[in-house]
Amino acid sequence: MAEDVADCSGRPSSVTRAIWMHWLLVLLGLVAVVLAVVLNDELIRSWAEGRPDLRRVLETQGLQAIKDGAVRPPAFVAPAITLFVVVGLLMWMLLVFFANGNNWARLCLTALLFFTAVTTVAGIRTDPPGVFVVLSVASLVLEVVAVAYLWHPDTNRFLRRVPQPLTSP
């Protein structure tokens, strides 16, 4: 069976699609970071509603009382930005090596997607605002599709070749 070649780089379409799935995940992560900045109060409210000791304070005194209280709400924005930058750069670096036929990069990308999925599920379990649940579910779907392309038979054949000099994905 012949490989399905999608572009002039000689990469099969499964490799190109795997790369695109990763970039869509990065874009989805950017949307999540922007929403974390814009909806920071909603994230704090959701966190406070999940804690029985703070729920009453939230109901009687409002969100500002939670922000100014003895129990400080967790920071959402700074960790979201940091995580986005670190994972995005790591993914970019691994994609360069993967696109050039390095199997170890596929293994690393698979592990990265696995741990991203685990943290996504953990995030859903904290009962975040609905928009974050929707983004999380979309992320999980993209992660599964990306793994499928990473391990597609055409990708396997491509990675058995000798690695070429580095080019951009």
- Rough outline: elongated
What is the count of structural domains? 1
Unreliably modeled segments: none
Head-to-tail CA distance between termini:
25 Å
Mean pLDDT: 91
Fraction of residues in helices?
over 70%
**Number of DSSP E strands:** 0
Major sheet: size, sense and barrel closure?
none
Number of DSSP helical runs = 8
| Rg result | 20 Å
Which sequence of SSEs, written as H and E, runs from N to C?
HHHHHHHH
**Structural class assignment:** mainly alpha
Beta content comes to: under 5%
Could you walk me through the main structural features you see in this protein, from its secondary elements to its overall organization?
The chain has helices at about 15-40, 40-50, 50-60, 65-70, 75-100, 105-125, 130-150, 155-160. About 20% of the residues are buried. With about 170 residues, the chain is an all-alpha fold. The two termini are about 25 Å apart. It has one domain. Helix 1 packs antiparallel against helix 5 (about 75-100).
Task: Briefly characterize the structure.
With 169 residues, this protein is mainly α.
